[in-house]
Specification:
Chain lengths: 163, 252
């Protein structure tokens, strides 16, 4: 059992793409932050896509409600991905980071090693906290709740018209 | 490297408090070394378990009952996610580390190694043999090697090793620096590989997580929302009934 796992891991670890990716993660903190942002978003997108798929395959949900439930999940997933990526990229932007770090660490010399290290750490933390905590967990519920309400009302009205 | 030790004594009053806070913040951020899937998992958990319920309760205009249900749903889902992703990351990382340290993840003839133990052993050997030349370096490097054994290689420890090598009188300074750089690169390569493999594993196990959520979630919510209904009713029995049952051989 372990041998095939070992072989696949060895192949994965030594593939040119992974080697190049790991090298870039080590040399470029900004790239590492963006990678973590993408991994976080892709987990969400995959989970939402799976929910949509499961809803469409679920025979216990009535046909008229199926597409509504799937649409709601797809909309929430889409909003989550867009808001998170936009907030993350905006925060990871060099100009934004540079302006924030200059203010936050104004006591340090901008060309010093300490300033660069502190800026790299702040860049990663602020981007991830901003995108995965503030944008995804505060902005998304605030945006998606009215949209969900609107879609629900539309669904109810359509059903009434059909009757 | 301690940034906030600079000119600390000259700061007085309100503006000095801000400056001290800035130095302390810079010091903390400069120490951040390992940001990976663990950070993502922790942030995701905090957001889902704390922030989403708070946002729903404060901002949602839904009826209270519906609001409470939505707010409670998130910490339960966050706990499920944490129970699934944290073990994957810990066990997966350990498994990959063991393979890497046996050289099973290295390709023959390639310089791109994940074998951290090999490079650590080489570096420790070089430090120990160089320490024979300089008494002061021997005592400093001894302390640093102890820290390395206990905590592993971090940014602070790496800086301290570089400083100790630079300030010593040993003849193999460049060799030691090169050895430390190789060890550090291998350490980072292994760390990023562990993160990426665990991410792929977490994605692959998402269908199971969704199934588990679908199965357990209604049951847990039912327990939280209606705890009384789920308790077994207490047996009430009259003295007459008790005597009658005892005569038949006792209450079963």
């Amino acid at each position: 059992m372990i041998k095939p796992v070992e072989k696949s891991l060895n192949k994965f670890a030594n593939s040119p793409f992974v080697k190049k990716h790991i090298d870039k993660c080590i040399k470029n903190p900004e790239f590492l932050t963006k990678t973590l942002l993408v991994t976080s978003v892709s987990k969400d997108v995959f989970a939402y896509a799976l929910r949509v798929h499961n809803t469409m395959k679920n025979n216990e949900i009535p046909e008229d409600k199926k597409s509504f439930v799937a649409k709601m999940d797809a909309t929430t997933g889409f909003i989550t991905a867009i808001v998170q990526i936009s907030a993350g990229l905006a925060l990871a932007n060099k100009k934004v980071q540079s302006a924030m770090c200059k203010k936050l660490f104004s006591v340090l010399d901008e060309n010093s090693k300490q300033f660069k290290q502190a800026s790299a750490g702040f860049g990663a933390v602020s981007t991830l906290v901003g995108a995965t905590v503030l944008a995804k967990r505060i902005l998304v519920p605030l945006i998606s709740a009215p949209i969900a309400g609107y879609l629900e009302n539309k669904h109810i009205n359509n059903n009434k018209k059909a009757i | 490297m301690k940034i906030n030790s600079l000119e600390k004594a000259n700061f007085k009053g309100y503006s000095s408090a801000i400056k001290r806070a800035q130095y302390a913040a810079a010091d903390k951020f400069a120490k951040i070394d390992k940001i990976g899937e663990g950070t993502n998992i922790a942030l995701d958990f905090i957001g889902k378990a704390v922030l989403v319920p708070a946002t729903i309760m404060v901002a949602s205009k839904e009826p209270k009952e519906k609001k409470e249900y939505s707010a409670l749903k998130n910490p339960v889902a966050a706990a499920f996610q944490l129970m699934m992703e944290a073990p994957i990351l810990m066990l997966g990382s350990n498994f990959i580390e063991k393979l890497a340290n046996k050289g099973k993840l290295d390709k023959e003839g390639s310089n791109f190694s994940y074998n951290e133990k090999l490079y650590k052993d080489k570096f420790v050997e070089s430090v120990k043999s160089a320490a024979k030349e300089d008494k002061n370096f021997e005592s400093i490097s001894g302390e640093l090697l102890e820290k390395l054994d206990k905590k592993g290689l971090g940014r602070n420890l790496k800086e301290n090793f570089y400083d100790a090598i630079e300030n010593s009188t040993i003849s193999t300074k460049e060799t030691l620096k090169k050895s430390l750089k190789e060890f550090d690169s291998t350490h980072k390569r292994l760390y990023h590989l562990q993160n990426r493999v665990c991410f792929v594993a977490a994605i692959a196990l998402t269908p199971i997580l969704c199934k588990a959520e679908d199965y357990f979630f209604p049951k847990i919510m039912n327990l939280i929302k209606h705890p009384q209904e789920n308790k077994k009713p207490k047996m009430r029995i009259s003295l007459y009934h008790f005597k009658a049952q005892s005569a038949k051989g006792g209450i079963k």
